[in-house]
Amino acid sequence: MQGIRLSSIQRSTCRDTEMKPLEIAAIRDVLPGVFASLVSPELRHALQRLPTSFLTLGAYREGRPVGLAIAERREGTETAGLLALTVAEPERRHGLGRMLLEEIEAVLLQTGIRVIGAEFLGGTEPGTPEAAFLRACGFNEPRPGIHIWGGSTGLHPELPWVHKLRLPDTFDVAPFTTLTRQEYEEIQRGEGVWYPPDFSPFADEELIDKERSLILRADGEVVGWMILEPFDARTMLFKTMFVRRRHQRMGRGIALAAEMGRRLVRDSAFSEWLLFVEARNEDMVRFLHRRVSRPGVQKEVLWRTVKRI
Ligand SMILES: CC(C)(COP(=O)(O)OP(=O)(O)OC[C@H]1O[C@@H](n2cnc3c(N)ncnc32)[C@H](O)[C@@H]1OP(=O)(O)O)[C@@H](O)C(=O)NCCC(=O)NCCS
Fold first, then answer.
1. pLDDT higher than threshold 80 for residue 79
2. Which of 230, 257, 290, 303 suits a disulfide with 142, CB 3.0-4.6 Å?
3. What does the pLDDT read at residue 7?
4. What's 301's domain CATH number?
């Protein structure tokens, strides 16, 4: 960060001339605790020691923190991600958000960054304040990046298929822990051949719940899986579901999901479930809209957008 200058260390931002002058300064090493209310809980932990790839700007009015912007430079690329941009509520709609963004963009530009990406969590409808702000600051129209469904693991009367659908007798469902070494190696060799890398059952394998994750076999051969990962103490994340091509579009995936659903209903360890699907996985998104989107099930979208700076 040596040699990088903020264009306006001390300047008054506001249209409201009554407001006291504002200071924007780069923050290094540790984020002072006074900024806690401007940081999401998910990010708070990562900020105890600011990585060198982070660029952090704090805005102060009379020494009080009123805004925060954090961007992360993606090593070896011309891209940075906007991790946080927050303005304290009483300060909103006075141009501070735009100013913080302009400052961070100017510094990123000096370090060779040309594209900045932003994402935010919202409902299913596009017209949110976050989207309006980012559009006003020159970002493209935000698009769904990840679809998120969630609910309680209790009986879902809205999802009767969970209780009805069964796999034919030629199929067998067993925990991930039953994978033999030979099966494990065959699946490893199949990555990018008979299943796309995104659907690997071994991604972040140390985090998955191997007792509850399921392997689907047909006539003794592994033909699919449903991988679970604890998300927090009470929430189980449905991480990856895959069924081999020759068994797709025959209702096997949904029957595997139903089997998993029934097991979770009986399992008192987790009271909530969560499911993330990349928007580019269009078949799965359609499937879940048809089968899971119900009034008792929550639906959110992680919206994504980019801006060339
Ligand atoms: C989004 C946020 C940073 C905006 O900060 P701000 O200081 O209020 O924004 P600005 O005053 O610079 O607004 C710039 C333009 O963005 C648009 N905008 C900002 N907030 C808006 C809102 N709530 N609804 C609609 N448009 C909005 C407007 O076009 C505005 O220009 P205008 O006031 O001349 O109409 C602030 O509302 C915030 O901290 N929200 C919570 C965290 C968040 O959502 N961060 C964004 C994640 S990427």
1. yes
2. 303
3. 43
4. 3.40.630.30
d(CA 96, CA 179): 55
Judge contact between 52 and 23, C-beta under 8 A.
Answer: no
Q: How far apart, in whole angstroms, are the C-alpha atoms of residue 107 and residue 80? A: 11
Radius of gyration of the CA atoms of the chain, in A: 24
Q: Whose CA is nearest to atom 35 of ligand 1?
A: 93
Backbone angles phi, psi at 7, to 5 degrees: -75, -20
User: Which mutation among 19, 83, 85, 93 tests ligand 1's pocket best, with the greatest number of atoms within 8 A of CB?
Assistant: 93
| Ligand 1 center–CA 101 separation, angstroms | 11
**Is the CB of 95 within 6 Å of ligand 1?**
yes
Model confidence pLDDT, tens digit, residues 176-204: 999 999 999 999 999 999 999 989 999 99
My answer on whether 288 and 164 are in the same domain is yes
What mean pLDDT comes out for the span 219-238?
A: 95
CB 191 within 8 A of CB 178: no
Residues 201 and 293 in one domain: yes
Same structural domain, 170 and 281: yes
Convert the pLDDT of each residue in 82-103 to its tens digit.
999 999 999 999 999 999 999 9
Tell me the residue range of the domain where 42 lies: 1-113
Instruction: Name the pLDDT band for 294 (thresholds 50, 70, 90).
Output: confident
Same domain for 91 and 200? no
The answer to whether the CB of 130 is under 6 A from ligand 1 is yes
Ligand 1 within 6 A of CB of 150: no
d(CA 233, ligand 1 centre) in Å: 34
Phi, psi angles (nearest 5°) of residue 42: -65, -35
Q: Is the pLDDT of residue 80 over 50?
A: yes
Same domain (yes/no): 35, 160:
no
For residue 109, the CA-to-ligand 1 centroid distance in Å is 22
Ligand 1 centroid–CA 51 distance in Å is 27
Task: Output the pTM of the full model.
Answer: 0.84
Q: Whose CA is nearest to atom 17 of ligand 1?
A: 133
Q: Number of structural domains, the chain?
A: 2
